[in-house]
Structure formats: structure tokens, C-alpha cells
Amino acid sequence: MTEMMQAVWYEANGAAADVLVCGEMPVPAPGAGEVLVRLHASGVNPSDVKARAGSRPMGFPRIIPHSDGAGTVEAVGGGVDPAMAGLRVFVRNGQWRCAFGTAAQFIAVDAGCVHPLPDNVGFETGAALGIPALTAAYAVLKDGPVAGQTILVHGGNGSVARLAVQIAVDCGATVLATTGDMAGAGRITAAGAARVFDYRDPDLVTAVMAAAGTTGVTRIIDPECGMNIATSIDIIDEKGVIVGYGSVQRPTPELPFLKMMFKNITLSSILVYLLEAEEAAAYAAIIGDMLTRQVLDVPVQEILPLDQAVRAHQLIEAGNRTGAVILTMD
Fold first, then answer.
1. d(CA 101, CA 118)
2. How far apart (Å, rounded) are the C-alpha atoms in residues 306 and 232?
3. What residues are paired with 305 via a beta bridge?
């Protein structure tokens, strides 16, 4: 008899309440190069919610959503080290370019998309790591060590940005941050930022440069790169790097190329889904080490059972979160 599992899926784009279904599906079998993970938790990201709503073509007749999750390796496919069986892991790229993601009790996924989860970290926290934590580590460290640098993180209260603050500080950088919600600035300083600025301040450039002092800001990390590009170019020091991991509000900004050229600025766009396995493993090891040392705070705001996936998607769409939204299978 075919073993069945609980899963959430959709077969058409639309509102969560209209298209998400919770029911039974066969447990997948791991193919060559894959592992079968028994999932205990699934993380819901904005990209998952936007995809369900129709931000990109479905590509498959039925989709189990979500890229992030955490659980234990149940079995391995051909060519995979048998020693991986039984490992506690977190999952990334679960539903990237494939049909079945982590909103289920099991997932068969490329072995390079699972990473060790420290024993002192719960599965709910593990399910909040994939996209946010690896994006943060990638943004901070993709060009090498940052010890001694001064880094500006825009939107410091966002999930990725707040993780980036913590990673940069742990790696020896001084971090400045901006936010549109100064009432929440304490969360950003608690994460390690030396100063937090209101990004709407007309004197932002002068204030940030004064805070940076003679070292200057050598790196800027931004979730809304297009909206902030002019200000970032004025702030960044010569030969500095601007790393953008989003630009929804202004997707096609006008670039003052000559000003960038005369400061020898590098503008870098990143997408965590396209990390090579070796890069992802290196960043995951950094995240794992920080979690083991208990110096990385990964807030979880809401934990819901799998059959409340509609509510989870609605919470993401509502915004104003201070932590991850997680579905559990236990």
C-alpha cells in the first residue's frame, strides 16, 4: 500500500482561501542525488505567498508551496552518503523550480539543499532559516571578510536585514541601520547596530557619514535597492559595494552612472535561490555556528498547524510582522 502524507497544495493561482487545499498525497521517493526529509515545520515566506497569488507562472499542474523547512533525513537516494540518514536538517529551495515544497510531512529534495541543524535549535526556528538567513549571510559575506568595515543595512527591522545586522557584527563589522519605524529601533540596536536612522530624514546622508567617521561606509545592504539608490550612492565610500536583494517599490530605477563610476562603486544584485551548493553550505555553516553559540536571534511570531496554511499566508500578506510564520506537522 502506498504510504500517504498530509500536505497543502494549490492547482491554480488566487487568494489563499480560494486555492489552498489540505489533504493527503503519496509520500515521495528520493531520486538520485536526493534525500527524503520528514518535515516537522515549514516556513512561509513572502515569495511563497506571492507565487501562490500569481507573481510568476505556476509551471506545474499542482504545487505544494514553501521553500523553507526543517526536519530529519528519513532516507537517501542513489549517490548520496548513507550517513545523512537521521540527520536533523533545515531545507532551502524546497519549491524552487519544482512542484513540491515543504508544506507537507515529507519532501524529496536535492541533498545539497539540506544543511545541518544544531541540536540546540528547534525545528520551528530551523524552518525560518533558509531564505532569510542565507540571504543575509550572502549579502554580508559574498565579497569576503568584513571585519573592520562599516556597513549600512537599510530596512533594519526586516527579517533578512535584522539577521544581516547580527551576522555582520559577529564577523567584526560596525553596523549602522535605517528604518521607517523608529518605534522599533530598539530591536535593531538589540541585534547589534551601533546607530539607527530614520530613512526619511532629509539629512540622512550627512548623519550616516558622520556616524561612519573616517572609515566611511564600505558596504550597503538593501531590500529596496531602487528606492534608495541615490542616497546610497551619496553615502557609500569610494570602491564601496551596494548589495540589493529586492527592489519591489522601484524595480526599474534610473542609475547615475557617472557618479557611480567616479566613486568606483560596485552594484550587486543577489538571489539566494541561485547559490551554488558549496556557497550555500559555507553560509549555512556560519549560520549553524552562530546558532550553536546562541548569538543569532531568529524570531518566530506565529506557529500554526499545517491545516491552517490559509491563515499563515494571510498573516504574511498582512505585513507588520516581527518574526517568522511557521506551519508544523507534529
1. 22
2. 41
3. 328
pTM for the complete prediction? 0.96
Are residues 36 and 67 in contact, defined by beta-carbon separation less than 8 angstroms?
no
β-partners of residue 115 are 90
What is the count of structural domains for the chain?
A: 2
Q: Is residue 45 part of a domain?
A: yes
320 and 226 assigned to the same domain: no
Summarised one tens digit per residue, pLDDT across range 134-184 is: 999 999 999 999 999 999 999 999 999 999 999 999 999 999 999 999 999
The yes-or-no verdict on residue 54 having pLDDT over 90 is yes
Biggest CA pair distance of the chain: 70
Residue 110 has which C-alpha cell? 536535492
Give percent helix, percent strand, percent coil of the chain, each to the nearest 5. 35, 30, 35
Find out whether 16 and 48 touch, Cβ atoms under 8 Å.
no
Of the candidates 181, 191, 184, which has an alpha carbon nearest to the alpha carbon of residue 140?
191
For the record, the C-alpha cell of 294 comes out as: 546562541
CA torsion sign for 270, 141, 102, 49 is negative
Instruction: Provide the strand spans (E) within the chain.
Output: 4-9, 21-26, 34-44, 68-76, 88-91, 106-110, 114-116, 150-153, 174-179, 195-198, 217-222, 236-244, 266-269, 300-305, 324-328
Judgement on whether residues 209 and 241 belong to the same structural domain of the protein: yes
> What residues contact 320, with CB distance under 8 A and at least 6 apart?
none
Residue pair 101/108 in contact (Cβ under 8 Å)? The answer is: no
Query: What is the rounded distance in angstroms from the CA atom of residue 34 to the CA atom of residue 110?
Result: 4
Is 16 found in the same domain as 114?
yes
Q: 557611480: which residue's cell?
A: 260
CATH number of domain containing 54: 3.90.180.10
How many other C-beta atoms lie within 10 A of the C-beta of residue 70? 29
